[in-house]
């Protein structure tokens, strides 16, 4: 799908929205299911394009995978798995690269194409590759593929990540867990809740992992992982997007089915803008009656302000009552949405990894281009705030990360129409 969103502006969102399972937790857990020699059942999995791609990757490897009612079942159909994952699947999604280590540790070797995904700046896999080498794998990179071959056993490994990369932390955790006799320590590990969810999954299947959620993770390799079931945590980024959208439109609403302690940095920032918040055990209420007060936002790895909410927060601050500063320390070139927000009347200057957002009284609807998943979500928020109608082209990016996004926004009172391309219309039976 690559159609257009038509967003009617000046709409105050009101009501309740139920948050789905976290895509960024489900994907690495699905990749880790490669390690298990019995059926794995994963609950609360959002129906998203990225999840379908990972399902197709597991099928291409040789698993039987079903996906119904937000439940993924992964079954082994043969002891012999395909050890090469084709480019046409991996190019669609960056998280697909994380099948390399699990497949290589299980089968002795694996070959996976270098990944694709959102164009939000360079995101190299160097940390993954160097970590796999330390774990005892021989790595060859040629013709756009990475081949990993297990060449020996090591008693102990210490991996110090140069940056707390989420993908590398998950990849190396998942690989090391099935290396019997090897004790692995990952220092400067990413601390996101999704990594803790992966640890809980691995341990439920028979792994020995501790420390997830801190900067030091320890893994005692085991001989096998069995099967079992696991429920994915709520999507904190989806929750944050709807909270920002409600506040940005001077609305009043509730997001349910969340873990508020996963949203601490966002909630603190929103309070500083003047939003009123009510926090319960599994919900957050938000209301806003005026343009936001200016704030300084510093984007950092968890528990800092999340990079995946930076574009949405920027859209909100575009109509602030002063000058806000956003410093992006994770993906330092993640400002593709700035030019599109300017088309709507925003006053934003970018210097290096810093954006200066000078609040204006209003935005105006305009034709804009969705460049990646979170940028497209930001443009939806901007369109709901703006006067008139906003046309968001290449809107398909948003379907990679937001389950039932049109239905959920509609439930809050938003007026968003999806206009498919002529190719989509012609292919629809």
Structural summary, described in words:
The model is unreliable at 117-122 and 425-429 (pLDDT under 50). This protein has 14 helices and 24 strands. A hairpin with a 2-residue loop joins strand 20 and strand 21 (354-358). With 429 residues, the protein is of the alpha/beta class. It has two domains: 4-20 and 234-427, UDP-n-acetylglucosamine1-carboxyvinyl-transferase, Chain, CATH 3.65.10.10; 23-227, UDP-n-acetylglucosamine1-carboxyvinyl-transferase, Chain, CATH 3.65.10.10. The strands form six sheets. The chain has a four-stranded mixed sheet.
- Roughly what percent helix? 25-40%
Overall pLDDT confidence: 94
Strand order of the largest sheet: 22-23-1-24
User: In the CATH hierarchy, what is the architecture of the largest domain at level 2?
Assistant: Alpha-beta prism
Distance between the termini: 15 Å
Q: Say how many strands there are.
A: 24
Using the CA coordinates, give the radius of gyration. 22 Å
Low-confidence stretches: 117-122, 425-429
Query: How many domain modules?
Result: 2
User: Could you say which structural class the secondary elements and strand pairing correspond to?
Assistant: alpha/beta
State which percent range the strand residues make up.
Answer: 25-35%
Outline type:
elongated
**How many helices?**
14
CATH topology of the largest domain: UDP-n-acetylglucosamine1-carboxyvinyl-transferase, Chain
Largest sheet: 4 strands, mixed
Please give the CATH class of the largest domain. Answer: Alpha Beta
């Amino acid at each position: 799908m690559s159609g257009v969103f038509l967003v009617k502006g000046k709409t105050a969102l009101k009501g309740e929205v139920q948050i789905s399972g976290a895509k960024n937790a489900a994907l690495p857990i699905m990749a880790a299911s490669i390690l298990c020699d019995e059926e794995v059942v994963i609950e609360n999995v959002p129906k998203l394009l990225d999840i379908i791609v990972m399902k197709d990757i597991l099928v291409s490897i040789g698993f039987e995978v079903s996906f119904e009612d937000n439940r993924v079942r992964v079954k082994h159909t043969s002891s012999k798995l395909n050890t090469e994952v084709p480019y046409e699947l991996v190019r669609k999604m960056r998280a697909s690269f994380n099948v390399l280590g699990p497949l290589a540790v299980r089968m002795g070797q694996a070959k996976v194409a270098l990944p694709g995904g959102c164009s939000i700046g360079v995101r190299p896999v160097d940390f993954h590759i160097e970590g796999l080498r330390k774990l005892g794998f021989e790595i060859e990179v040629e013709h756009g593929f990475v081949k990993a071959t297990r060449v020996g056993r090591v008693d102990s490994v210490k991996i110090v990540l140069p940056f707390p990369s989420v993908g590398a932390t998950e990849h190396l955790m998942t690989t090391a867990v099935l290396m019997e006799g090897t004790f692995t320590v990952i220092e400067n590990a990413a601390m996101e809740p999704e990594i803790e969810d992966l640890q809980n999954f691995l341990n439920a299947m028979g792994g020995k992992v501790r420390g997830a959620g801190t900067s030091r993770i320890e893994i005692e390799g085991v001989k096998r992982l069995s099967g079992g079931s696991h429920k994915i945590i709520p999507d904190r980024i989806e929750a944050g997007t709807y909270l920002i959208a409600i506040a940005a439109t001077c609305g009043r609403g509730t997001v349910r089915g969340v873990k508020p302690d996963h949203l601490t940095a966002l909630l603190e920032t929103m309070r500083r803008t003047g939003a009123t918040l009510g926090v319960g055990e599994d919900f957050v209420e938000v209301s806003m009656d005026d343009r936001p007060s200016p704030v300084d936002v510093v984007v950092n790895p968890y528990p800092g302000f999340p990079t995946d909410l930076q574009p949405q927060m920027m859209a909100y601050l575009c109509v602030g009552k002063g000058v806000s500063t956003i410093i992006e320390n994770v993906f330092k070139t993640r400002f593709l949405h700035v030019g599109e927000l300017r088309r709507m009347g925003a006053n934003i200057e970018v210097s290096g990894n810093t954006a200066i957002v000078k609040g204006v009284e209003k935005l105006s609807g305009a034709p804009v281009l969705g460049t990646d998943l979170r940028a497209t979500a930001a443009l939806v928020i901007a369109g709901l705030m703006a006067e008139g109608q906003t046309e968001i082209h290449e809107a398909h990016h948003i379907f990679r990360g937001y389950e039932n996004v049109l239905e959920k926004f509609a439930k809050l009172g938003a007026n968003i129409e999806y206009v498919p391309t002529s190719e989509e219309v012609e292919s629809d039976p």
